[in-house]
Design a protein that fits this description.
The chain is an all-alpha fold and about 300 residues long. The chain has a domain of about 100 residues. The chain is built from nine helices and no strands. The chain starts with 6 loop residues before the first helix and ends with a helix.
Length: about 300
């Protein structure tokens, strides 16, 4: 088939649109082949004959298959007709040789004499099958049996013609969308490269580097100024004297703390040498002294 062309392209090129419409309408077939009316008419007649023969063959096959399963599926068929139907079906399908047909003439005659009953049961079975096909064709709103053929043709056309055209249109839309996406991707990459160039190797990077160097030089200058100020402006004598006094006090306090630490360590050593018994004696003496102190304080109060 001819590749579909976007409507925008046709609008931009009116001469090409005229040529494209003419090719699609008169010169070419929908599949892209050259149009030949005479051959196509002959092919149409052959196709019609083929369709007729195929319809007859399928009709015969459907009748044979339905007749084969009729005894087991029909509830209204008399029991004495099951065997004749099976034999006639076997004859129709070629399972019984021609030499045995004279032997089965009685069953064949019984089948023909009850053809109206068999036809009625066969018709019911075909109606049941057609109803199932209607439900399969459209489960939500099944068509009538008379409309089943048009429904089937519509489904076939939708599957072979409409869906193909829709698929071609979607391919064009997808190609246009891919072109748009690739264009946006190209613009994004171009912008990203420009930003990277400006931030790492361009004016922004140079400005940032210069600013950092300026800050470093400024910090070095402030450090030198602080050192010069320290050497040229010594601290006042009162401040130096106060620092020395504070240092001396800190030294004396540290010595006192060390002495107290030594006394505490020696006391702990004595307690350790005295042991548990010595500690109990000390506790007893303390209790006696506390009682004596309490007794004396009581006398004094009196």
């Amino acid at each position: 088939m001819l590749p579909p062309v976007d409507n925008t392209t046709l609008e931009r090129n009116p001469n090409f649109e005229v040529l494209y419409r003419d090719l699609c309408a008169r010169k070419l077939n929908p599949d892209g082949s050259t149009r030949d009316s005479k051959k196509q008419r002959m092919h149409g007649e052959i196709r019609q004959d083929l369709t007729t023969h195929r319809t007859n063959v399928h009709t015969s096959q459907i009748l044979s298959q339905t007749l084969t399963t009729l005894p087991s599926r029909s509830a209204t068929l008399p029991q004495d007709l099951h065997s004749p139907i099976d034999l006639v079906t076997a004859q129709l399908t070629g399972q019984i040789p021609a030499s045995d047909r004279n032997t089965l003439a009685t069953d064949t005659q019984l089948f023909l004499s009850n053809i109206d009953i068999i036809s009625f049961a066969l018709s019911d079975q075909l109606i049941t099958t057609a109803s199932l096909l209607c439900k399969i064709a459209d489960p939500k709103s099944p068509p009538e049996i008379e409309e089943l053929r048009s429904k089937a043709e519509g489904l076939r056309n939708a599957a072979t013609l409409d869906l193909t055209k829709d698929l071609a249109d979607e391919k064009v839309h997808l190609a246009n969308l891919a072109h748009t996406v690739l264009t946006l991707h190209f613009d994004l990459l171009q912008t990203s490269i420009l930003i990277l160039e400006r931030t790492q190797h361009g004016a922004i990077a140079r400005a940032t580097s210069t600013h950092a160097e300026h800050i470093a030089a400024r910090a070095a200058l402030l450090g030198l100024q602080a050192k010069i100020h320290t050497h040229t402006h010594p601290p006042p004598a009162e401040f130096v004297k106060a620092l020395k006094n504070f240092k001396a006090e800190q030294g004396s306090s540290e010595a006192k703390l060390r002495d107290r630490e030594g006394l505490a360590r020696r006391t702990l050593e004595l307690y350790g040498r005295a042991g548990e018994r010595g500690m109990r004696d000390l506790a007893g003496r303390k209790e006696v002294l506390l009682n004596e102190i309490g007794r004396i304080e009581g006398k004094l109060k009196v």
